[in-house]
Structure formats: C-alpha cells, structure tokens
Amino acid sequence: MVSVLLIPSQLLPPLHKFSLNFQPCRAITQTKFNFKFSCTSSFNSFSTFDFNAIIDYGPSLSKGQKLIELEEGPDSNYLVKQSFTRVFDIAALRVPAEECHALQARLKGHLLNWPRIKNIARVSGDDIDEHIKELFDQKEDENGVFARNENMDDLLRERVELANKFNSRGFIHFKKLAQMSRPKVKKRTGQGSQERAKGRRNKDEYATIEVVEENGETEEDEDLTGLLGDDFRVKSWKGPTRLLLLDERHAKKAASELPQAVQVLLREDTNQSRKIKYELVQCKLTLFYDYWRMDEVLEELLPKGMVVPSSYELVGHIAHLNLRTEHLPHRRLIAQVVFDKNRPKVQTVVNKIDAIQNDYRTMQLEVLAGNHSLVTTVVENGIRFQVDLATVYWNSRLGTERQRLINSFKRGDNVCDVFSGVGPLAIAAAKKVNRVYANDLNPFAVKYQLKNIACNKLQGKVEVFNKDGRELIKEILGRENPAFVTQVVMNLPNDAAEYLDAFRGVFREKHRDMHLPLPTIHVYGFSKASKPESEFLEKLGC
Asked: Structure pTM?
C-alpha cells in the first residue's frame, strides 16, 4: 500500500530537486512516519525541512484504557488474556432503526470504520418484535411503556397451540412422518466437531458497545437541540433504535463540534421529515483479546526490539514453528498466541529443537500448545496423506516442486523415487504415469506410505521398497526384463549426490542391446554460492 502526503505549495520554496525519506515504525494499526525533505532552490541555497507527521488512527494495543496492569510484566509461561482488553471512548448517533442504513451510506466517511467492527450497533433492550408488539395495546402510559392487553395470555396460548399443530408451511405435524420418510442421522459428537464448534467466534466475544451517557435530556450543549431545534430534543425513544458509531476523533465532543458536512446532512433530513430524531451519545467500545491479530498480540508480549515471528509451516492440524534463539525463552507464550488465533485449523503447535541429524530425516519436536498428537492428515493437490511428524519426514514447502516434477512427466513414464518418504511424489505421480517404484530407508515412512497408497486406491500402480538407495538402484535398473525406468528422482539434498555412483555400469549392456533410452535423473542438493549450478557440478566432478 502506498500513502501520499499532500503539502500546500506555500510551505515549500521553488524546488528543482527534493528527496523524501521515511521509516515506518513497528506498529501495524498505528503508523508513524518521520519525514525529512532536502531541497535545493534555483539559487543553489540548501534548505532542510523536518516534518514529524504522525498518522494515528484505528484500534491499537498502545491506545485505549487498560483494565488490568501487569506489575512485573508478562510471565514467560502464562498468557493473561485480560491484559489485552482495551476500552475506547467514541461518540455515536442514536437514530431510528428504519433510518440507520440510509444515514450510514451518507455518513460513510465520518463513521468509525474499524476492522471487524460494524458501524451500526444495537441498543440493548429497545427492540420489540412486530408480532409481539401486536399483543399489546397501542396506548402508552405517561412513561412511554406499552400497556398489557387483558387477552394477551389467551393469544399467546393460541399461538403456542398453532405452532405445535402446524409446521412453518401450514401443514399438520405427523409425529412418525420423519421416521418413516428418512433414516436417522447420527449426530457428530467426536472431538473434531467439538473443536470446530469451540473455534467459532461470536462477535460478542471480541467486542462490546455500551452507552454511558445519553445527553438528550440532561446537558443541552451535548445533544442536537441547538443544531436541529427544540422539537428534536429526545426525551424518550419509541420503537427500535440503532447507534451509528462516529469517527474516533469526535469522541467527547459536543454536537456543535461535529464536522460541517455532518451538520448539513442532519439539517437536510430534519427539514424533510419532522419525525426523524437524532441523539448524540457517548459510548464505551471494549475490545477483548480475541479481537487483536496474532502479530499485534505478539508485538505487545515480546520485548521491544525483538523480531516478531509471523510465519509457520502448517502440516494438517499442526503448526510447525522454527523459532530463533532469542525467542526460546518466550516460546510457550508465542505458541499459545498462535494456537488461539488460528483455531480450529491449528490444534497443535510444535517447535523444532534441533537440526535433522539422523538417516531417517526425522526432527526432534517440542509440543508447546494444544494436544500432543503428532499424527495428522495432509491434503496436497487433492491427495490425502497420513503423516506422523514424530517418526517420518514431511515438508509442505516442497509441494510446488513436486507438482512441477509431475507436470514434466509423461503418461508412459516409469518413475523411480529413491527417497520417497510417505509418498507425496510417488502417489501423486502414480495418478498420471504408467508405473512407480517408491523406496525409503525409514520403516515408519514405508508403513505410512502403504496406508496412503491404500487410502488413495493406487495399490496396483506403486511398488514399495524398504532398502538403502544404492541397493534399490541396482535392483530396479538391473532387472533382466524390467519396465524400463525413464525418470529417477533423488530428493535428498544433503546426501543425494553421493548415491550417483550406483548408476555406474547399470545401463552399459542392457540398454545397448534392447535399444532403451537412458533415464532422466533428478538430483537435489544444497548450495550457498552465488552460482549454485557451478558449485554443484564441481561437487559431482563434472
């Protein structure tokens, strides 16, 4: 997003050159820029102008009133969600419910317009359902309260009887009809459905609005009487009303201090309809922990100057963090925030303790939040894979590279995946190519690969091995009458190049006699050089 600052021309001398340098602060919703203009005039005299332009708008944890102050700072192992509650003073126009949407469209630029907060709020306790309203007499007492109808109990009893006898379309209820027409459906009461229901957030869970002062009766300077006339002093409201939340800059201001455009609009509406009444009220907008985004909460929790972790790898329901050393003392707080802000999609948060150092390529993971199950289901390119991160290797970031390889394969290809893992490439390729040979040294990976093959109904197209990579290459490519392999994938970047010597002498006589083409070998490796291709070829001795 690009922001443009417009400066009146009289503030600047005649310029030939000017430069604009700015540096944004860490806050997202409260953006601050420090501007410095360097100008050179036509007389070669150098002038410098410093402007500290502060754009302070929108909700922020650095603004508002705190309900709880932590004396010793946040605990590194416990998250106090109440400490993120903020209360903001805002002004609102109380208007009849039937007029609120039309007025909102005309006052759009002067309303609150905060993320995830509607500009229209309900006033608690003043809504009366039209059907219920018919049960009362139209006469009101001196306090503006509808009087109770003597026959209301009979009418209510009649409505209940009709509701029990007829359905919404006017047909008579048959108690056994539902059982005869369709079988019973078992309700989903498993842990997954409970987690999804628990993860759904209601608006009331992250924001509430409360009217703290109604100025129409008590203080003449704060209502719209002086603006609209004595006929528009609101003594008691009749019927449902709504609150139009005004811009935060208008909080604790009188009606005469509203923008001129708002005053003109209200005058026009009152001149057209003498029945419309408006009231300026002061409100308290409370934003709870669930309102704030993950990065805003982490920025408030972590020490100033520390980089806020903003990304993680999602493997099924598991969020896999890769925290820096400076984050480790606060790892449980970070994990709890990631867990809270991404439910129900994320049910477990883990962090990698150490680098991969074993032949099975498994990672040492520490469970920081959520349940402790590391068995999950991953969907990649429409294919389901069951994975146990405690015993097998999985990298979701390689999904794009796997799809690129599959797109390069042809229908008649026979693919050999030397280091297949749980089968993300082998199973996806089996849906396109003729035959796939998949291998992995890890017995747990082979176990889950067989499950994934059966789950995706590809038992006849994938042959699975649990061997060393060299043994597989010699066995598959050394067969007397094989379905000749056209593609060989070796996705083990740290050690794949060391297995290339297994291809020596495999194709020398057989492919010459049978006139078979040599396969394409896809080898992966790591490199930090500016020219990785040259370094890798040098490593291979080419």
From this structure: 0.70
